Amino acid sequence: MHCNKQFGPSSGPQENLSFPFSLSPSPMPSVQVKEVFIQGLTHAGKTFRPSDWADRLCGVMSPFRAGGAQPGSHLTYSPWCFPTVLNGVKCVVVNAELREFEPMAWDFVINFAKDNQLQMLDACLIPDWPKR
């Protein structure tokens, strides 16, 4: 999958990013899938409710980070699980590192998506190319 914008937990939640997704194989086979995008759309194509589901889910996941929860970590999103909006759809980006560090937290997030029949995409975030 190709992305034309860089975003991540260090810059906070992002709004209205445009990401052209390609379902064809990536032309760069060395790029490994590092994120799962949980979309706020059900398999039936309906918008998932409540409208703040992504913020709530990421709030629950905020303590999960390298080194464990720290004082004040509840005030920021985990670097492994953060909300964003892609093509007008609320999403949660879950980094695969969460699976290694906190397998139960990974299972919780993935099972949340499965239980609510939310669409998921395997992808990786690719930074912008330098401007010439």
Describe the structure.
This protein has one domain (1-9, 31-66, 81-132): 2-Layer Sandwich (Alpha-Beta Plaits). Strands 1-3-4-2-5 form a five-stranded mixed β-sheet. 25% of the residues are buried. A hairpin with a 2-residue loop joins strand 3 and strand 4 (89-95). It has three helices and five strands, in the order E-E-H-E-E-H-H-E. The protein is an alpha+beta fold. The chain starts with 13 loop residues before the first strand and ends in a 9-residue tail after the last strand.
What's the gist of this structure?
The chain has 132 residues and is of the alpha+beta class.
Number of strands: 5
Terminal-residue CA separation: 23 Å
CATH topology grouping: Alpha-Beta Plaits
Query: In the CATH hierarchy, what is the architecture at level 2?
Result: 2-Layer Sandwich
Q: How many separate domains make up the residues?
A: 1
Strand content: 15-25%
Which class do the helix and strand fractions yield? Answer: alpha+beta
Number of helices, where a helix is a run of at least 4 consecutive DSSP H or I residues: 3
Spans with pLDDT under 50 lasting ≥5 residues?
1-31
Mean pLDDT: 77
Shape: globular
Topology as a string of helices (H) and strands (E): EEHEEHHE
* Main β-sheet description: 5 strands, mixed
CATH superfamily: Uncharacterised protein PF12112 family, DUF3579
Binned, the helix content reads 10-25%
The top-level CATH class is Alpha Beta
